[in-house]
Batch of 4 targets.
Target 1
Amino acid sequence: MKLKRLIVLGLIMVFAVALCACVHKEDPPVPPEPTPYEDDFMCGYFLTFYDKNDKDYVSPSSNDFNGNDAVRCYFYRKGNVSYVINGLNVTDRTTALDGVPLDISKSGKVTMHHTLYYTPELIGKTMVLHIVFYNAQSDSIHVEKISDHDVQTISSISFGAPMNGTAVEGDELVDITYMFDGELTFKMIDVLTKMEIAQYDENDELISTDTIETEDITGQYDTVSDCEYIIITKHYVDRDGNVYKQRSLINRQPDATEELMLPYGSGLATFESLKINFA
């Protein structure tokens, strides 16, 4: 009888030890769920403008990048090819891109400090900032809305972050590391409505005068053979509807140009060079 009690007691102790071991045994770690942008990298920006009273506004997708009203600047990698850059048509020429890494597997810094010029047509509109992301695994891009701002009150906006992750290179994974630094400055300009070009000979005699509407301005202007210099008169309208003129003198010379700020799209403007071809 005593032996049975010892056996039962021993079984109880073994069961208790086993139970304690089961209770205190740690569960195996569960791998975290992948985040939506685990392998996505900030690679640019995308701007849209809409009327504050427009209740039908819908955030754009990557399919909405094209068109005159699209303001975009982003880079991405296509397969094993170097970065591709798109949409630099809204920046001033002194800023563009600085330090874009040519190889996605190497460290670097991406700097996008751009100036966006707009006309009074955008007064009262709201600007929506979207960030463009590049997915290294699927080799695709998508956009995410970040913030919106009143065009009249915003002067500049900054965005950026360090980017770290991996991408597939053949059968291997390689590290991607770079700093993205973005800053947009907004400047309103007056609207160029037309320009007059007067041609003069070496005796300061007027040869001819041409009036060119803004929508008819092309990338070059050809003079007659006797022209020694031209005077360009540019007609502007400011935000209050006031009209004024600016003049510039260009003497005969090779590679003569005149910088113009021309409107495009809906309320946007960009620098364009007018090449003067002296015959």
Note: The helical segments are 2-24.
Target 2
Amino acid sequence: MKVKAIITGSDLTEGIGFYGDTHHDNETMERLKQLAMVLEDVVFDLENLDRQVKDRREGSAKEIKWQLDTMRKDLLWIAFGEEIAEEVIKLLEEEK
């Protein structure tokens, strides 16, 4: 049975932290592994969506493509900082 729920980023990271206690830190490691699997699934699905809208001319396809590109850039900035993110974005745009 599949159950759907509305969750937030905080829900996904709840309990993840450094506690300085082996038991609790091992639980953090387990949660991080689980979170990595969820995020991999999300990225995979979004890449499939990106392929679907690539080179499409419909307005909605262009909007979806713009949103996906914006999200990638925002995630790069958060993960790596502005300077590295800008370099990666520049490299990706040169590939096109």
Note: The CA atoms of residues 17 and 45 lie 28 Å apart.
Target 3
Amino acid sequence: MKRRAGKVRFWAVTIILVVVTAFCCTGTALCRADFGGEESERYYREREQILVKEAGEYLVRQGYENSGLMLTRVVNGDGSRVYTLSIHHSRIKALSGEERKRLTDGLEDFFFTDQECVFRINL
């Protein structure tokens, strides 16, 4: 009888430990998923605002005041992002290929480094 009670107690404790472990793992996974979504979105939003501000200031320093700047993004299902920085200014449209390349190279310095992001520039 004592032996049977010992087996029952062993299995009861084992089942409780398995349930507690599963609960803890699920809670950790859900917590990380929630943290990643809100925090990363806030991070990227802040980085995007800084990018547009710094790119605009760079264009003013280069003599292209009142340039129209538009940053668009596409967030893929895997979390990767594709950004397109479009710049509208009549004098930029008249630039030669080499001058456009020099301007593009200067703007690329403002892109934030992230493995998940790809950047494009439309002049």
Note: The CA atoms of residues 1 and 119 lie 72 Å apart.
Target 4
Amino acid sequence: MEQDKSPEKISEKTLENLGSIAIEAKKILKAEALDDVKFFAKEYRNIENNFSQIISKKALWKNETEFKIWENDAAEAYEKMKSAEDDAGLLSNRFERDRVENISQPKVENTIEVYSGHFYETRSEALVEKLKNEPNSEETIEKVGSLHEYAAKHVEAVRNRELRATDVETWNRNCRKTHNELINLLNDINWIAKERNLTPLTFRNFETNDYYYDRGKDIGGYTDARAEYDRAIVEKYCETAFSNLGGAREETLTPEVATSILDFHRLGED
């Protein structure tokens, strides 16, 4: 007599137990990933703090090889932090993510991201040279070369004292718009460089504030602090990158804007 070869039925109780085990395993993995996010976020902050202390005490150096040791360490910690956020379930919750990362610094001028502005010329020129060897790259080359123009537009918006005095809401809106456009462009240029295995202008990208901000969900103000931190970094990066305007770049800016690049501090909230 031929034996029944159908698979053995699993009891409902066994299925329930397996389901519970899977749920618990998922919770454990999520908790471990969350610990990884916290660990690498702290490592990133420590690298930034150590760099800030050294820069504040040390005479300015412009040796990119020496600087890239710091930059690479910070980039590695930051990338590991971001990669762990998916498993930790933080990608869909901005407020929880920013609370866990807890990224902000009182002195943005001493950050690794801002300091990389000293190497803007060499990095952007290397990218343009790479693009010249690619077909139909004219628009991309133009995009890479337009960072100073976007910076100038933002400066002009911030320095429009007449508009600020007569219509502060429109002034704020213009400042925010030009600031977000500047941030998005810097982020895009970074991606263009990374896609070609070149050193980006900055090792990481930055947050804009063109999303709906629910203050009630931002317990502790971590998201607000992160947005202000990133936006201030991009401004200070541009001040550093364009502090020695010259040649054709200087000719594209009005004298007022060229001068204001050197004093890129915001005149109010945007």
Note: Confidence is low (pLDDT under 50) at residues 245-270.
